[in-house]
Structure formats: C-alpha cells, structure tokens
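F.,

This is the one I mentioned.
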C-alpha cells in the first residue's frame, strides 16, 4: 500500500472513523488519497448511490466505521433502524467493494455480538454460543451479519478474486469525538460531563448509579484506530494462521478492566473535582464484569498503548474544546 493508494473511510466524522483518518495521515498517507463522504453526501443505506460511488472512485482499501450507533434507550426505541440500517450499510458497502475490485476491507463490529452470559474474558470463539442481550439484539444481529458477510465473500471469492475482508470487535471506546449527550452517552463521556458540571457549580457530591463494583474495559480510540490499520494490513498468511474461515473476527481491547468506582475516581481526578463521590446501590448494576479476551490480536503483535489516566486527560481536553 503506497501513501497515494486510495482508501475509503466510511464514517470519517464519527469517533472511530476520525481516529482512523488521523492515524492514516500520521502514517504518511496523502490527504487527497483518503476518500471520505458525509452521511448527507452519501447515504450508505442507498445501494445505487454506494455502487455509483465505488464505480467512480475505485478505492483500494475500505474501512467501514459508519454505523447506526446508540445507547440502550435508542436501541430499544428504534430497533428496526438499528437492524435495517446496519445490515444495509454493510451489505451495500461489501457488495459494491467486491464488484469494484476492492481487495481489502475492514468492518468495525462491537462486543455486543457476544452472548449475554459468555464466559469472561470473552474470546472470539464465544460468538453464536448463546442468547444475546435483548436490549440491543437487533443491532448485534446486524453486526454478526457483517462478520459473516466478510467471511462468506472470502470463502466464495477469496481464491478466485484475491479478496480479503476482515472484521474487528472493539471493547468500549472513548476519546476525542465522543458523544457527550446528557441522555445518550456511554459511561466515560457521561462521567466527564457530570464531573465537569459538578466542578463548575461547586457541587458537594456526585452520585453514581449502582454499587460501583461492576468492572468494565475501556480502550482509547486512537489505539482502536491503530489496531484497525494493523489488522487491515496484516499479511494474509499471518492472518490465516490466527483465524479460521468461519471464525475470522478479532477482538480489540486493552486486556484490563476497572471498577466503575475506580473509573469515577480517575475521571474526578482528571477533571479536578474535589467533592465526594457517592454510589446509589438501589439502582441496577448490570453485568458484574465485561472484559474481552484480546489474546488473538496480542499474539498477532498488537497491544494497546494509551493508559487510562493519559487517555482520560486527552478526552477531557477534547471535551473542553467544545464545552468550556
Ligand atoms: N463508540 C464505542 O464505544 C464503540 C464500541 C465498540 C464498537 N464501536 C463500533 O465502531 C463503529 C463506529 O462507532 P463510532 O463510535 O465512531 O460511531 P459514531 O461516532 O456515531 O459515528 C458513526 C458514523 O457513521 C455515520 N453514518 C451513520 N449512518 C450512516 C449512513 N446511513 N450513511 C453514511 N454514514 C452514516 C455517521 O454519520 P452522521 O453522524 O452524519 O449520521 C457517523 O459519522 C461502529 O460500528 C460501532 O459499533 C464503537
């Protein structure tokens, strides 16, 4: 892959897509070689438009970081949007890529593809071994279809057309470009927003839902972008050694989890909040632990670099640019 090779980053304005763009530019790819389209310019659910885009631009590589993404409330309220739009985006992009000679493509999935009660840490082999979390099942089913789409094209056309389509399953991500919406954000951006507001108003305490004991894993988004580029560019023989044709997805995590109490402490410190942190144990905790088994990507030669405290500091700087 030369610095001038055309690469399409679908979803380049999202948190992950923008980090992939940053990574590719940092690696020396020419800005003009990176193809990007906003949702308004190219609706990836529109099959004809996607086909026309690929026929005109014929990228060499494709990162699919566009998706209909949301929290529990949005997933529960709009299940058909989450299922249909994610299925369509993936199907349209993979098929148009194949028809227009794209040899290398990477789909971003999610840890929600795994069964609700999968043994921890969750290995790639847990896929399709049990019942999914009902609140985001339609989304998870679409993401599983994305993995199987890549595998099916590889199995049918890999040898004859030299295609190699891959997928990565990130753990919880945070960092620049995160969503800080009051009702619809993930735990780290929600804590940053709350501690920032508490500091500004000199609030004596911040109360966090649950006991604070559940443990979760968090990966800084620039590490995710680095892992995506790493997996995309792994030589085929190396990738094949660590995967099988019908279990080809790769978990991406940092390998360590923290309790919500530890996380709250770390965010409070980052923001400079000096009040008390309380826990409301009458509120639900969710699963006691959610950690990905990232030994496959570690064995391939990639490990996360950004420590939580450093990542939180960078995330908070990004928050301040928008919310100061
Ligand atoms: N964030 C996490 O913690 C996390 C964790 C695990 C996995 N992931 C996965 O990583 C991927 C990217 O997530 P993210 O956090 O970067 O999401 P994001 O910030 O919401 O970005 C998603 C992007 O997709 C675009 N998009 C949505 N529908 C589109 C359509 N029909 N046509 C064209 N573009 C469309 C959005 O554009 P508009 O905003 O203009 O609609 C947006 O730029 C997703 O597959 C997600 O499942 C994320």
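My design for it:
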């Amino acid at each position: 892959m030369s610095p001038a090779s055309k690469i399409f980053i679908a979803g380049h304005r999202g948190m992950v897509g923008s980090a992939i763009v940053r990574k590719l530019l940092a690696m020396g790819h020419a800005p003009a070689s990176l193809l990007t389209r906003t949702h308004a310019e190219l609706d990836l659910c529109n099959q004809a438009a996607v086909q026309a885009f690929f026929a005109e631009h014929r990228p060499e590589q494709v990162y699919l970081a566009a998706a209909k993404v949301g929290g529990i409330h949005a997933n529960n309220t709009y299940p058909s949007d989450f299922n249909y739009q994610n299925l369509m985006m993936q199907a349209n992009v993979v098929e148009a890529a194949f028809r227009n000679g794209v040899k290398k493509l990477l789909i971003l999935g999610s840890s929600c593809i795994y069964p609700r009660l999968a043994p921890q840490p969750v290995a790639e082999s847990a896929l399709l071994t049990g019942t999914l979390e009902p609140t985001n099942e339609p989304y998870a089913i679409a993401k599983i279809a994305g993995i199987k789409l890549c595998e099916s094209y590889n199995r049918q056309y890999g040898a004859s057309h030299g295609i190699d389509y891959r997928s990565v399953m990130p753990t919880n991500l945070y960092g620049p470009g995160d969503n800080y919406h009051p009702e619809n954000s993930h735990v780290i951006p929600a804590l940053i927003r709350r501690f920032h507001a508490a500091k500004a108003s000199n609030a004596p305490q911040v109360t966090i839902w649950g006991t604070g004991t559940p443990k979760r894993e968090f990966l800084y988004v620039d590490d995710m972008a680095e892992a995506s580029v790493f997996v995309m560019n792994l030589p085929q023989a190396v990738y094949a050694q660590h995967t099988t044709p019908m279990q080809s997805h790769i978990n991406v995590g940092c390998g360590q989890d923290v309790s919500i109490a530890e996380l709250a402490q770390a965010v409070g410190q980052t923001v400079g909040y000096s009040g008390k942190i309380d826990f409301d144990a009458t509120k639900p905790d969710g699963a006691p632990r959610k950690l990905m088994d990232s030994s496959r990507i570690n064995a391939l030669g990639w490990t996360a670099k950004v420590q939580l405290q450093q990542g939180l500091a960078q995330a908070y700087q990004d928050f301040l640019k928008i919310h100061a």
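The longest helix spans residues 137-161.

Talk soon.
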